[in-house]
Amino acid sequence: MKLPLLGLAFALVSQAALAADAAPALQDKQAFIDHLLGQMNQAEKIGQLRLISIGPEMTAQTIREEIAAGRIGGTFNSRTAAENRPMQDAAMRSRLKIPMFFAYDTVHGERTIFPISLGLASSWDLAAIAQVGRTSAIEASADALDMTFAPMVDIARDPRWGRTSEGFGEDTYLTSRISETMVRAFQGKSPAERDSILAIVKHFALYGAVEGGRDYNTVDMSLPKMYNDYLPPYRAGIDAGAGGVMVALNSINGVPATANTWLMNDLLRKDWGFKGVTISDHGAIQELIRHGVARDGREAAKLAIKAGIDMSMNDSLYGEELPGLLKSGEVSQAELDQAVREVLGAKYEMGLFKDPYVRIGKPEDDVPDTYAESRLHRDAARDVAKRSLVLLENREQTLPLSKSAAIAVVGPLADAPIDMMGSWAADGRPQHSVTVREGLRRALDGRGKLVYAKGANVTGDKAILDYLNFLNFDAPEIVDDPRPPAVLIDEAVKAAQQADVVVAVVGESRGMSHESSSRTTLEIPASQRELIKALKATGKPLVLVLMNGRPLSIGWEREQADAILETWFSGTEGGNAIADVLFGDYNPSGKLPITFPRSVGQIPLYYNHLSIGRPFTPGQPGNYTSQYFEEPNGPLYPFGYGLSYSSFALSDLSLSSKHLQRGETLQAKVTVRNTGKRDGETVVQLYLQDVTGSMSRPVKELKRFEKLMLKAGESRTLAFELGEDDLKFYNAQLQHVAEAGTFNVQVGLDSQDVQQQSFDLR
Ligand code: NOJ
Q: What is the chain's Cα-based Rg?
């Protein structure tokens, strides 16, 4: 990480740092931290490793006392200056006045909620994603937060996993580019700036590959797959300067990440040269006992600190066990000091030694109303949200809708403010959400006609309902309509009969795509499918607006609907953004960052699988090829897919050379033309295939993409530069090599429908 410019630091050094006369200048990070470390007693050192949750576990009074006694290093879950100031005051009363930091899960917005990460990835728009990170940092830092537990860059190829919603999809390259974009945006010019927050990349590592998609489950993976597919997004975030890493809850090939010396020391610190702080996940050190690798708390603490886990989230064990472990010599002074050094280093990077109140500010500047409308960034949220929507179907130009039409807006998610926000919605408030119903109403502005009916509950299954409501949070997560299903459907059918077109907002409630919300099916719940069936029977054009946090198997729905718009959980301004697309004020441009399977039985299904000996050839079913015989093979919607109200065509793919010399580059050129009648954006995607290697290689891998706007009829030629580095992969010996041979360059507007040219690497 680069050192922040600390300029006029001297005046404040004395305040935070120490009674000692010979305190070194604040600009010299190493000397400053070494000196501070030299002043600390053992209890104060251990205190720095403890990250405490603000919540029912400890009263505010106890927390302040603990801080003043030097027994807490940082907290998370508080989110206003008024809450954090008394804690920082307590730290300033402690013997060495080491400042606290305040962290939170600012994942896709802090007060203004942007689309969930899967939606952000669907935009394929790095500038828009950077705006999300920056706006989040501005809002979070304005609320006295110094650190975010984001970005979450776990590759997810099993959509049964509820946390698929929190990541950027299945692809290594796309996720890596987003990872670095988010880190840079959160941290701004420097994480020490007043309006920056320190990024903690998570969950290191491979959390998205939990077996069976069951949350917290084990991960068993070959090293080449790990190095080629799963690790690069963490590395990209780290190389972009992320100040920290959060450690995954899962085990990797039998060893929990939290006790994994190979992962945390050999790979992260030695191979990658990571210099920041490592933070356990919530209670993960304690969980080493249930993982079956530690007999008791003492052993768990020992394993974790020796593996290189600097901070213990929601700690009890570091506080309780490290004194004894140090006394017996099982944990060395050097091991303790190393962890403390990283925590102090992170505080240094956040600018807290220079000014512990840099983000807290002065009491007189505290905002009178934390939830004031004026604190939101609605324009940015609407702009990003509309870019994240993916048009999956549009038969006979059902969309865009006319603003003079009579529209029936129905479905359990049509007017669901909590669900608009998606999971991990930081301090977003449902009352700020624009629902789909409200977005349509505003867009019509008195024109046309809008009738609403709920039509169905999210689920008719009482056990599921109880589960989803148990998960929450602040208010009942799901408001269940007690009327019988037939009555609800009847009401929706009546609404449909009065309308020219039906917009049915269906899918998952946000809690269904959440931590610990794994599913065995990817179907829309039966209560909602009954509604769709009844709506279809009215004969009215049917537009499905999907809300969900994972790919769903919607083969049946595809047959019923005239148009389908995938909206994920689109955030505070989601309803307005969806209306922008439904009425054609914005021409949809999103592309899927994850494959949609036909059924749950196909999982894992991802576009960049390895070549195999007996591949299934579409259109040629037969025995002894790799296939399922009960349903069509391949995805329902491939990675990279998404429609527009316009149409685009690629032509003239050419390479500047048929040979690539090592150390040189070649250019792939392609012409893209807007062949439709509307201006619009599309995403040109370039994939590479290493045809023959020392190991089987993926059938294709995304290596470049460009989102561009073209006026109706306009065409443009794009040039993508490719070099040896783009051809490299980790071989069986984990060497990062580009092997001589033939490479196919495939360019398309999705991952399936591509044009191809080839070159050789010599
Ligand atoms: C547990 C989650 O796994 C992690 O992603 C999150 O950052 C922490 N809780 C803190 O909220």
A: 27
Q: How far is the CA of 281 from the centre of ligand 1 (A)?
A: 6
Three-state DSSP state, 643: strand
Ligand 1 centroid to Cα of residue 424, in Å, is 9
3-state DSSP assignment of residue 211: helix
Asked about 281 being catalytic, the answer comes back as yes
> Following CA atoms 587, 163, 514, 77 in sequence, which dihedral angle do they give, to the nearest 10 degrees?
-100
Nearest to 209 by CA among 231, 237, 236: 231
Task: Give residue 166 CA to ligand 1 midpoint distance, Å.
Answer: 11
Query: What are 204's strand-pairing partners?
Result: 247
What per-residue confidence (pLDDT) applies to 473?
57
The predicted pLDDT at position 239 comes to 98
Instruction: Indicate whether residue 104 lines ligand 1 (CB < 6 A).
Output: no
Orientation angle between helical segments 333-349 and 297-307, nearest 10 degrees: 60
| Distance separating alpha carbons of residues 284 and 1, to the nearest angstrom | 27
Among candidate residues 125, 171, 229, 281, the one labeled active-site is: 281
Angle at which helices 333-349 and 317-328 pack, to 10 degrees? 140
The structure tokens 């801080």 sit at 67
For residue 143 and ligand 1, the question of a CB distance below 6 A is answered with no
Mean pLDDT within 435-440:
98
Confidence of residue 474 (pLDDT cuts 50, 70, 90): low
What is the rounded distance in angstroms from the CA atom of residue 759 to the CA atom of residue 742?
6
Residue nearest to atom 9 of ligand 1 (CA): 282
CA separation for the pair 565, 585 (Å, rounded): 15
Whose CA is closest to 370, among 426, 322, 438? 426
Q: What's the gap in Å between 466 CA and the centre of ligand 1?
A: 23
Q: Please give the helix or strand (H or E) that residue 452 lies within, else none.
A: strand 449-453
Q: Residue 2 pLDDT > 70, yes or no? A: no
Average pLDDT of the segment spanning 527-546: 98
What pLDDT is stored for residue 13 in this prediction? 45
Most informative mutation of 246, 315, 473 for ligand 1 (most atoms within 8 A of CB)? 246
Beta carbon of 79 within 6 Å of any ligand 1 atom: no
Predicted pLDDT at 623: 79
